[in-house]
Each structure stands twice: as structure tokens, then as C-alpha cells.
């Protein structure tokens, strides 16, 4: 170990000692020793101890004991003990600019807070300012520090974050002392954008020792923060990873806690407390202080008389109350999708033929494909003329005849993604739209209308009986374009009333509607269509992401249009044209459990 690393370790010891309320003379001794060791630069610690640091009065005895331990074992038993004894939430608070260990201790002692989220709430609701020697200015500085901390990382799309997480998790699995690795946090909860990757790692031996080794793995650009068994690193591509190394018996509870959300963890913790149990750190203890074995997350929920809550639902809406009644919805599975109704071909802006797209859909186990190239007004995306549509329909008829003659249970549907024009009219006249099996109506222009204008535009389009699905209803592009102004609930409510499905566009840059709006759709009895918006065979991979977002929105197979067979989808579209759309839509069953809309 070199002297710079030893100085860093001494600084950590001093910080944690102060956090634990150690006397100031010991803390100052560690700080002074850290400065003396840092002055030795890159020299090996053992050599410096024999030379520059050899004099008896250079460092205090307590600090020398730490240095001897570091030199002999490249680790400090004192540091590891302090790290193990410190609540991880307090270690997280140490990352907040301008918030030192003394104040964190005062916050913990005064308010019993153990997370940045709880600290932020206390700073906003006045509890922090009410602490002795804090006040409103200090609370404001804490809020600014939390904001600055969050600004150090940039959001990335869910699928990008997951890919980075899986790559780094694979590297972590290669360490000989790693027993198990799981991706947690917002990735596991299927948030559409992610700031940090969270990994929980079960290890043999001392968790802090393994965590330090993982910080040196290939692909790690730098260590942003190291605190024993938890470590924050930045990967070469800029993604931040929070690593939590734990003993095997702590793994399930650590995974649950790291998955979050913080509010869900708090709600479950309150339920445990009401039953005389204590959820502290990565252990559950009974009223006698004995550790309750938690081999998996399902056991944790069962001990608290709760049904297992899938990670996607852990957002502190109504999931805990529903779990207590055994009334959580049976979330959609990807295997329940039987068709895809938003796909493009070479006729407009797609990169493959209809036959190639059909075979790709069949390869994923789907039983029908809805071709929905762009309509004539969408010139930038190669919108189809009437003649081009006639040719396309002839090609689709031939493909279906081939499938039928071969006894293949697969069908290609004739669809169109028709522009909703600024006036609210749907592209093409009604007689021409009658030629299609289904119509997706989408806004592709004039995003700058105000909320009233855009809402009126879309509501008018929903009066057209040819529309089967309202495509990407807010127009957002994640991290690139904000959603246009619209009264989305009014639109969703009307769609359900007239028998139009709302699209969950599964393009990972869109995910539109989002999972929050899926809850609104379910509350109104409005069907959702999960559209891959596939422009090539690879685009069908978007269905996995769409299902993840649908699950997060609490959707079941009964809530999803393309979880129904092709005849039902065709009947749904025909009923809309015949004025029977409301009858074709799924009636809202009051007995079906609902997740509260937030």
C-alpha cells in the first residue's frame, strides 16, 4: 500500500470516528497523521514507516496502530469495524457537499434519519431547521448540497443502464470471493430513466475487503466514494455504480432495501414495527432482538403477512395495502402478448420487408403482425400514397394466403399510422380508412400547441370511428424532448369511453404512455396496446421493455389489447367503426383491484 492510499484510509477513520461521537483529540490525531502520511507521496507505506514516519512523535499512537495494520494487511480492522457499524444511509449523507460528520450525527440523533431521501424531506418540511444550531439557512444549504450531489450523475435510458449493469455485474461475478450478484435500484424497479446502477453482492470473507477489490476491476474509471462494504464507482462510459457487499445471510434483505423505492421501504418498515419487528440495516429482528432469517424477499413479505410485491410496483402507491389484502394484480407476462400492432416496413421508413418483419414476429412466438406504415401527410417518414397502400395490401393478401395454405397459424393485418392533423382530422378520408384492419392515430407535427389546443385536437380525432389505437399520446422522447402539453387523463378517459386503445409505445426512447399513465388507463377501463414501433426485426426486442413498463403500471393481460387473439382485435376495430366501441372495450370491473393513481 502506498502512502496516499494510507492517508485516505486514515481520513476515513477520522470521519467515521467523528460520526460516531469519538472525542475530538482522537479525531484530530487521525487527521494530523493523514496529513503527515500524505506528505510522503507515492512512497510505499512500509518504507515510509521506517524512514519519514519513524520518529515516535510524528504520528499519534492510535494512528500508528492503524498504519501498522495497513502496512501489514493492506487494510484496517478499525476502519472495517467502523464501516460495518455505521448505517449506510449516514455514509450516503457524507457524500452531500457541505454536510460534515458532526452535523450528520446531530441529524441522526435529533431526527433519527438514515437516508438522503428522509433528510431531504426533513429539510423541506421544517424539521431540519428546527434542530438546535441549524435553522432555515442550513436547511437550504443541505437541499442545495443534495441537488449538487444528484447533478454529478447524468440520467440514462433504462435499457442502457441495464446493459451497463449486466456487463459490470458479469465482471463482479468473476471475483473469487463473490457468491451472488443482483441488479437492484431503479433498474430493477423498471424506471424509464436511471441515474445510478445499484448492485448487491454476497461475498465470503470481509465485505469491505471485497468491495475495495471490486473498485479496481477492469472497466472502473475511478472510485467516487469508498466506505467499506459500500462503494460508488464511475465506469469508463460515465455510468455510476453503487456497490453493496454483504454477507450471504444478509443478501435478500440487502437486495430488497437497495431495490427500494425509499418510500416503499419506509412503508414496509412501518408495518414491521407495528408487529414488534425491527428492520435495521440488512437484518430483521424480533421483539427479543433475535435475527429473523430472511432467505429471500418473498419470506420478508410473508413474515409481515403481505403477498410478495413485484419490484416494479414498489413505488409506495397502494401496493402495500393491496398486498395486505392479497389483492395485487397478476401482472402481464411477455409470453401473454400474442401480436404486435405498431410496425413499419420498407414501404415507409422501415428497414425490412413485410415478409421479413412477419418472420421476425413469428420467431418471437407472436401470432399476428400489424403493419402500420406512415400515412401520406407524413412526408419526412415516407408516408404512403394511396397507390402504395394498394400495392402493400396486395402483398399482405398474398402473404396471408401463403400462411393459410401452409397451415400456419399466423396473420398479417393491414394497418396504418395515420397522422392526426393540427385541425384534429385523421389523415385520409373515411372511405379509404375503411380498407384497413386497424388504424393508429398519432400526432407527428405542431407539438407547440398549448394544452387546450392539443387536447381539443386529440379529442376531436377520437371522434373518428376509424381510430383503433391512439399512438404515443404525449410525443415525448426521453432525455431529448419533453412531452407536449395535453390533458392526458381527459384523453385517456374519452378513449376508454369510445372504445379506443391507448398505446404504450415500447421504443425505449419513448415509452409513451409512461407507467404512471398506465395506472390512469386501468382506472378508466381503457385498453392499452403495447406497440414495439419496430422499424426492423431487431425492433421486436422493444416488446420486453414495453412489458416491463406495463407491469410497472400495474397492467394485467386483460388490460392489454395485443394480449388478445387476432379475431378479438379485428372485432374490437370493427365495433369501433360500427359505433359499438364502448361495448367492445373491457368494462371496468369494480372487483378488480386497482392501484391508486399518483
How would you describe the overall organization of this protein?
The chain folds into four domains: 3-151, DNA polymerase, domain 1; 156-255, Beta Polymerase, domain 2 (2-Layer Sandwich); 260-325, DNA polymerase, thumb domain (Beta Polymerase, domain 3), CATH 3.30.210.10; 334-584, Metal-dependent hydrolases (TIM Barrel), CATH 3.20.20.140. Helix content is 44%, strand content 14%. The protein has 25 helices and 17 strands. β13, α19 and β14 form a beta-alpha-beta unit. α1 runs parallel beside α5 and α1 (3-19) runs parallel beside α7 (101-111). The longest helix is centred in the middle third of the chain and has 20 residues, at 386-405. 46% of the residues are buried. Residues 586-598 have low confidence and may be disordered.
Overall radius of gyration: 29 Å
CATH superfamily of the largest domain: Metal-dependent hydrolases
Q: Would you identify the CATH architecture of the largest domain?
A: Alpha-Beta Barrel
CATH class of the largest domain: Alpha Beta
Q: Tell me the fraction of residues in β-strands, as a range.
A: 5-15%
Distance between the termini: 52 Å
Low-confidence stretches: 586-598
Question: Which topology of the largest domain does CATH recognise?
Answer: TIM Barrel
- Count of individual beta strands: 17
Query: Judging from the principal axes of the Cα atoms, what is the shape?
Result: elongated
Largest beta-sheet characterization? 7 strands, parallel
